[in-house]
UniProtKB/TrEMBL annotation:
Keyword terms, alphabetized: ATP-binding, Nucleotide-binding
Pfam family, one: AMP-binding
Transmembrane segments: none
Source species: Smittium simulii
Full protein name: AMP-dependent synthetase/ligase domain-containing protein
GO CC, alphabetical: endoplasmic reticulum; membrane
Molecular function terms, GO-annotated: ATP binding; long-chain fatty acid-CoA ligase activity
Classification via InterPro entries: AMP-binding_CS, AMP-dep_synth/lig_dom, ANL_N_sf
Annotated AMP-dependent synthetase/ligase domain residues: 42-474
């Protein structure tokens, strides 16, 4: 399927209208959970027509509820019908997330998306800053909201995505702590706080019997506010219009071209982030279908093997794990299988580089149809971002999964869209070329030694202009003006380089640089990105002081690779736990040596290589030590405080 020629796409509802022309075709699916067997079933789908009806009903019901509340409180109801007010969505990816998002656009309302993993303080800040009166959330979030309700200045309504009955609490295994009596407690608690607690089903029923005509948005109206997971201070609310996300979906549609099978994805990357949000809108243009993951990334391959999507959205760390798993069973396998796989891989890769396509009549039936089925037997396009894949990983996955593997570059401020590799581009290690309608230029950063006049490749801060660039940071004009020029250029803070073929590579970060005592400028993110390419490293935090001459690093080893490596060292007890191995002097010494060699082989300068390390057995996370954001960015300032004593010891 493709975009109808009978209408033009200016807003997200316009994109949805293209899908609704196929009213009886599958659109959104989920895997029902059986609490007796404690297993998830096959995917069950609702059609485009059903989802449109649900969205229309919910939109009408929401307006009716808010009108009633305003009337009962003797408040002016004009704001309800003036539209353009926010509704917060707080949940993992699921059918109801998208139903609500679609519903808001039918009435010119906009969403404020909260990451499922957000802690109380972050949720409180976003709900207050965005002035959200209504929160739509999964049932497990209700008590979290009520706990902070005294601090919430605007919230009047909480709408549960799950029915407030026995069916609702049996939808996911992580609701097992909920009972019917606990739901009654939540209802009474909400009532005591003068907050209406209801559920999506009830709102849809109200809307079905109190229909309000659709109130479509303009292209310039706000579509969503996504809060960037700030690594310092409070997050910024990125205000994006319908034009921004419609342009993003259309330009992706134009770049990717046609698929041989119907467009489909498993949605698991957070919808509170621009990446998956854009992909879901993009799927609309294909009249495709979306299956939501079963709530746990550990079951992701189970989900993809059931749905067999044509498109897979990934991140480098996950794709690296796919590579390690598949290569160990093929090109790195012992004996004849390994030899045969190496030969097959070499021939297929050469065919690919020669422009002969992804398929091979001999090697695919023998080897690669099986490796493709590891992810999805139908996969045609794998899209990845945040950092380029290592060339050998990219090339292997293209061959083993018989699929395009396209690196891309963008940010929340550009609705995830700036550059991407094209489907017919066999190169790797870069982020591709600009999407249609997007402009990229490089601005000199002389204090870091990056100049647009550099030879052979221009280098500098990446500046982006185009129809996907955001409107503003919500209620923060000064911060907006810092990064958005009057003529529309967005300063990303990333350092890029134009390659000889015109593609863009992201090589550094401008904002986190600091100087060592000998005057050398250090970009810790560049070093951390290098360390992340070592199989022994799961996470790292590189730190330094202007009064010190060298760097130190806190490293979280990857248990899968680290434990067998460490136990293979001489004078190491084979029964030691991960925690004991991290504290073992011989292991730490050998690990530091390994990192030193790896960094030098990766062309880091001597002053960029950590001279002392601490092995941390507990990963950086969002909720426990709170050292990373929901998008897995390191909170550098917080990490420096958290590890202050350790850092001081390392410098001694």
């Amino acid at each position: 399927m493709s975009i109808s020629k009978n209408y033009k796409v200016y807003t997200v509802p316009d994109s949805a209208e293209n899908g609704y022309t196929c009213a009886n075709e599958d659109y959104l699916g989920y895997r029902p959970y059986n609490p007796k067997t404690k297993k998830f079933g096959d995917y069950v789908f609702q059609s485009y027509g059903q989802i449109y009806q649900r969205a229309s009903n919910f939109g009408s019901g929401l307006i009716k509820i808010c009108e009633k509340i305003a009337t009962n409180e003797n408040k002016n109801v004009d704001f309800v019908f003036a539209r353009n007010w926010p509704v917060a969505i707080y949940s993992i990816n699921r059918v109801e997330w998208t139903v609500v998002d679609r519903a808001l656009t039918t009435q010119s309302l906009y969403s404020v998306a909260l990451y499922d993993t957000l802690g109380e303080s972050s949720a409180e800040y976003i709900l207050n800053h965005s002035e959200a009166r209504v929160i739509v959330c999964s049932i497990d979030k209700i008590d979290k909201i009520l706990k902070i309700s005294d601090k919430l200045k605007h919230v009047k309504v909480i709408i549960s995505m799950d029915d407030l009955n026995s069916d609702g609490i049996q939808k996911y295994p992580f609701y097992s702590h909920l009972t019917l009596s606990s739901i009654e407690v939540l209802k009474n608690w909400a009532k005591s706080k003068n907050i209406l607690l209801t559920d999506v089903t009830t709102v849809e029923k109200i809307g079905a019997t109190n229909k309000i005509p659709d109130f479509p948005p303009k292209s310039s109206d706000i579509y969503t506010i996504l809060y960037t997971s700030g690594t310092t201070g409070n997050p910024k609310g990125v205000v994006s219009s319908h034009q921004n996300y419609t342009a993003a979906a259309l330009t992706c549609y134009m770049k990717r071209g046609k698929l041989t099978k119907k467009a489909s994805i498993v949605s698991y990357l957070p919808l509170a982030h621009c990446y998956d949000r854009n992909v879901e809108n993009y799927i609309l243009l294909f009249n495709g279908y979306i299956g939501y993951f079963s709530g746990d990334v550990e079951r992701l391959l189970e989900d993809t093997n059931l749905l067999n999507p044509t498109i897979f959205t990934g991140v480098p760390r996950l794709l690296q794990r796919f590579y390690l798993t598949l290569s160990s069973k093929t090109i790195d396998a012992p004996g004849r299988l390994g030899d045969l796989s190496k030969r097959a891989f070499k021939e297929k890769l050469q065919n690919l580089l020669d422009g002969k396509g992804f398929e091979h009549s001999i090697w695919d039936p023998l080897i690669f149809n099986k490796t493709k089925a590891f992810l999805s037997k139908n996969v045609e396009v794998i899209i990845t971002g945040s950092a380029p894949l290592e060339p050998h990983v990219n090339n292997f996955l293209r061959v083993a999964l018989i699929s395009v593997v396209a690196d891309g570059y963008g940010s929340t401020e550009t609705a995830a869209v700036a550059t991407s590799q094209t489907s017919d581009d066999p190169s790797s290690g870069n982020s591709g070329v600009p999407y249609v309608g997007m402009e990229i230029r490089l601005k000199d950063v002389p204090n870091m030694g990056y100049l647009s006049s550099d030879k052979p490749n221009s280098r500098g801060e990446i500046m982006i202009r185009g129809p996907t660039v955001f409107k503003s940071y919500f209620k923060e004009p000064e911060k907006t003006n810092e990064v958005l020029s009057k003529d529309g250029w967005f300063a990303t803070g990333d350092i890029g380089s134009f390659n000889q073929d015109g593609s863009l590579s992201v090589i550094d970060r401008k904002k986190s640089i600091f100087k060592l005592s000998q005057g050398e400028y250090v970009a810790p993110e560049k070093i951390e990105n290098t360390l992340s390419k070592n199989n022994l490293v799961l996470q790292s935090f590189v730190h330094g002081y202007p009064i010190k001459s060298y760097l130190i690093s806190i490293i979280v080893p990857d248990p899968v690779e680290f434990i067998p490596w460490a136990k293979g060292l001489p004078e190491v007890n084979k029964n030691e736990t991960l925690q004991e191995l991290c504290k073992n002097y011989n292991v730490r010494t050998a690990f530091l040596s390994e990192i030193n060699k790896f960094c030098r082989a990766s062309s880091l300068n001597g002053f960029e290589i950590p001279k002392a390390i601490y092995l941390e057995d507990k990963p950086f996370d969002v909720e426990t030590n709170k050292l990373i954001t929901p998008t897995f960015k390191l909170k550098r300032f917080d990490a420096a405080k958290y590890y202050k004593n350790t850092i001081d010891i390392l410098y001694q």
